[in-house]
Amino acid sequence: MTATHTTEPAAGHARGGDDLLVIRGVSKRFGGLRALSNVNLTVEHGQIHAIIGPNGAGKSTLLNCMIGLIDADEGEVVFDGKPLKGLSPHNIMQRGIARVFQTPQVFPGMSLLDNVAIAALAKMNGQFRIDPFVYLSPTHPAVEEASEILRRLGLLKMAKYDAAHLSRGDKRRLELGICMACKPRLMLLDEPTAGMARHDTNRTIDLLREISATGITMIVIEHDMHVVFSLADVITCLAQGTPIAFGKPEEVRGNPKVREAYLGSSH
Description:
By secondary structure, the chain is α/β, with parallel strands linked by helices. The chain has helices at residues 59-66, 89-95, 112-125, 141-153, 168-181, 198-213, 225-231, 249-253, 256-263; strands at 19-30, 33-44, 48-52, 74-79, 82-83, 97-100, 186-190, 217-221, 234-239, 242-247. The protein has a domain at 9-87 and 186-263: Rossmann fold (3-Layer(aba) Sandwich), CATH 3.40.50. It is globular and about 55 Å long. It comes from Lutibaculum baratangense AMV1.
């Protein structure tokens, strides 16, 4: 899907009635620091929406507001027509939003299979745990689902390995598998290729494209412009907690406000 560039870039709105996520007037302060200021943003079903901006622009704070880790001072986040205010991060996940953090969040002392099976069970029964006294047979639905996800990720041969022994790129793929087991409608990715070599970065780009092709909507925060322009349908640029540009990649690439935000007014 595509979005039409608006006459008010700071609003960050995609036109049309097919919006999965709507952010209205979200503001957040930490003491005297204004992290977000009246942020408005819409994300359409099936879209890969990149959020870019220099360090300190408020990108991760915005994601934290979306999933309930931080309460916004003002404004609201609406997912599939329903406000998320007051819901715990776990309840928001159950609604269909999953997040991939900047540093891969996996259980290092557990096998790859169990890492993904935990998430599959959480989606099935609403509890993010595996009872240590219950043996999950290879035919348990959660195990079968986890095995299939690992196969799709190219990790099935390492299913019994502890996650601690994975490379950073493979840990990231495992974390994406954990998110996939949660069956999200919206996936939030905070710098999914940070610290990767270019080979692993390109593999991750291909994987994210494959996941997107299944119908999962994505919001991607990323500093690597190679990743952004390889993936994004539309881009929002934040600076000092405020959206300053919104549009298709080719529109944002040449936007003078974006160049100034990254490079400074002298450029």
